[in-house]
Amino acid sequence: MADAWLAFNGQTKHITTQVQFKPVSEDDMGFLSDLYRSTRWQEVLQAPWTDQQRKDFLQQQFLAQHDHYLKHYPKAEKLVIKLNDEAIGRIYLDRDDVSICLIDVSILSNHRGNGLGTQLLKELIDEAQLTQKKIVIHVENFNPAYQWYVRHGFKQMEDKGVYQYLEWHPKPTE
Fold first, then answer.
1. pLDDT score at 129
2. pLDDT score recorded for residue 49
3. In terms of DSSP H, where are the helices of 20-141?
4. Is residue 57 a part of any domain in this protein?
5. What is the CATH number of the domain that holds 51?
6. What are phi and psi for residue 107, nearest 5 degrees?
């Protein structure tokens, strides 16, 4: 079960067989920090800092985000995404009786653009449709994924300043 997409007990329809998932452990913290840095590096290049200062700043931000997720989503499913046994990303999900919160999904840059994000989202949408739950997510204003979510049926529900709050709703069952 540790290598399965836990939401579907290994019964995925859209994800290729070379992709596996495992619960995050302390052993993954180095990878997760590197992954976070890879998603934010372009932003900090604008600061008049040395590369070491940028790395230190991003490490601090990663730890703050990690602590925030642990505090505010204590029951969340936190998974490392692996491709052919190599860690390439993460997905964090929190479920309750009415919704699936997509807390975070990040993929290393050299693995982006290959359709994996769409496969993951389609699995979530299938789960949400089957369970009649909405999917919720906060997307930063500058994140190019905002339009990607909109193309997949998400609607902006609220402007929260730095973030946009989006929801996807299942079609009613008959």
1. 92
2. 96
3. 29-44, 51-72, 116-131
4. yes
5. 3.40.630.30
6. -130, 140
